[in-house]
Amino acid sequence: MQEPVFQIFVYGSLRSGFHAPAFEYISRYFDLISDARAKGYLYDMGEFPAAVPTEDEAYLVGELYQIKKEEEFSWAMAQLDAYEGIHSEPEEGAIPYRRDLTTVFTSAGNTRAWIYWFNEPIGDQPIIASGDMLEYMRQQKNQG
Asked: What is each CA distance from 68 to 1, 30, 32, 89, in whole angstroms?
């Protein structure tokens, strides 16, 4: 039986550099472990980024967090699931994201963490080649 995973990898609005209200929630219940990467492609969906898993050598840039109190993990993740639009009732609408385990790469080595993958077709949305949403947003702002 696998050990429970109490870590989460974030690449979008939950990252510290976004200063979004959701990050305040993350910082209350989770400790930042390190900057990190995970295999995936990142897309610009307009209002938000969308990540999809891959086996290619393409990486998402983000942060790895560990829950402060393991007994609060289920509750804390349920709040993040709600933020990411994950619903258990189909009549509540589409489920834009799904939460899965993934391998996360840090300077200290590889680990497992939860991640939110986009769960709908990407269409012809532009890819964010760097895999780094913060860098991409800075570039977009400088071009505008």
From this structure: 23, 5, 10, 29
